[in-house]
Amino acid sequence: MDYLQGLNPEQRGAVEQIDGPVMIVAGAGSGKTRVITYRVAHLIRSGVDAFNILVLTFTNKAAKEMRERITNLVGPDAKNIWMGTFHSVFAKILRVEADKIGYPNNFTIYDTDDSKSVLRAIIKEMNLDDKLYNVNFVLNRISAAKNNLVSWMEYQQNPQIQADDIETRRNLMGAIYQNYVARCYRAGAMDFDDLLFKTNELLKTHPEVLNKYQHKFKYLMVDEYQDTNFSQYLIVKKLAAVNENICVVGDDAQSIYAFRGANIQNILNFEKDYPDLKVFKLEQNYRSTQNIVNMANSIIANNKEQLKKRVFSEKEKGDKIKVMRAYSDNEEGKLVAEAIMQERSTKGLKWNDFAILYRTNAQSRSMEEALRKQGTPYKIYGGLSFYQRKEIKDLIAYFRLTFNPADEEALKRVINYPKRGIGDATVDQLIVAAGANNITSFEVIINAQKYLDGRTAAKVYGFATMIQSFQVITQNLGAYEAALHIAQHSGLLKDLYEDKSVEGLNRYENIQELLNGIKEFSEREDIEEKGLDVFMQDVALLTNDDNDKDKNADTVSLMTIHSSKGLEFPQVYVVGLEENLFPSQMSLNSRSDLEEERRLFYVATTRAENKLTLSYATSRFKFGSLINCEPSRFLDEIDAQYLELDFTARPTSSNNPFFADERKAWSSGPGSQGSNRPSADTFSKPKAPPVKTTSILAKAHVPSAGFAPSDTSNLQVGMEVEHERFGFGKVINLEGNKPDIKATIFFKEIGQKQLLLKFAKLRIVNN
CA dihedral defined by 63, 69, 75, 77, rounded to 10 degrees? Predict the structure, then answer.
């Protein structure tokens, strides 16, 4: 058949194997989607009724793309295939069968906001502490239970689950779960997790329904099988039990969603469920150069739990993978932005040929600022621009209100956040009173007793007093200290800190990243005015962005690595390759967690088609302090023959010696207690790795008597110098040309810093 001619032998074998259990191990860039669509088309052309084919995907986009391709191959029969996401397909089945489990066929599907609203009401009705029983935490806990098919009754009867809740002082989680299920049932509603949970319940309690769909779906295909959870695994296994014409497609090396409940064992142990399984390995990568593919292979080879395969590329050998070292996260952003600018101009590329990938959303700040400063257009994918995130806008609204109390939009945003018992009706009253009396809303709340009843007036006046105190404080503090004071005393920082959900931790980290940016701003040597109000002016310009850009606009793409899965770009920059950042400190508790981080790194590197650049910083601000950073263990694991180290001092021997030297320097510096890296084999109950921090505020230097800056035009490496604030240090590197020479200096008190000599004001101690 003509449509099979363009397939390589392994792809063709997978397409033509119609009957029995099949597993297609599809390496990165190996033409997975093509194989799935051709296989479905081949089933139909071989006489299989399209109504008897079920294809399950993880995104609507994937399902839509596959259906379009199949339609091009077989025509309108493609419309009859049952194809879609797990949730959409089983919602369709539940619409038909819902009455059997006591639900109306027109049941409502609650989204996340609906679920949170129900849970808030329940928590309030039960008179529970909504900080301890944070709605995000509660929803995530219930979601995890449902994805593991733990009902509310089993939840309450499970000793281990109950012990966990007692340990965290959330003894009533089971009761909340029970009330939540009852409330949804009474409303004739299912949440997102129920679509799988209730399908399992339906198939388990009604054998006739299971039998019906086992005979209807004679051929099953599951895309991205490595991302299935326990609930999805059981549904698929039950449906395929009669005919066993099941084909799963996936790549264990790209299993990166354990935090969502995905279980890599589903694909690793698939052969145990089907001993007569036929396995096809798609190992040719059509996306990336040989160097990128071979480098990625050297990374993933370190994982013990994997399906062995040899991914290869027949494209050109390509550039080596460049590794860039920066002295700070801000400099890392600058180096990446400059590299993109240079690559674009010298190779005639477009902006959308470039992607910057990072482990956490908070890392986007330094990248965004560097791109903006050089006028490079960019777009954040999989999340909002750093300065457009709610928590950032909330804190900035407090800053705005402090400097301009007449700012009504800022007032409306934060007057009841964190909650102060000031409702929307009260805010409306304030605005109406301001308009009627031709004064600002802030003037109304200062004189609240004139416009509101006593109790409400007291709450509103308390808010006004707080803002007035911020106005006084900011006159006497630097930008960072003022920002930290407002974040703390507004209650915003405390509110976010107490939210221990994944989302809450991300929001808290983003606030800390904003404070880090203000800290760095306040220490810049090239500007004189460093107040919080000046920083606010800069931010106002940064946030003046067009959020309605064309999706196909020529912009650099910024996204987390998780968001990049399934995408590809000619050039990719993976940033922040530092221990405790990537791999994440949270991943050091077990080998399985560390191996998932390594798979995440593998996914990041295999997004690149032609050129891959990795970068890390030797220091990074965290929680207002300067942290010395150790290069990621993943850099050690790359075969040195594929690397190009873009440092001032390059290593002379092989096998990645730089990283060992850098790590040795990191772990033997002033005040160090050795490397913070646990052994790869000590994952039973590791303690949290120690973090070396140096608080600049806590180590104020007293300048020498008669301190006066020296002429630094002839400054040389090795000279000892004194800085008015940073103290005594030694020059370890000089770079650039006059008048923009940068000096890298290791200060005894605060560690390594990079300074522009024309602004640095250094006293040469000896030469």
Answer: -20
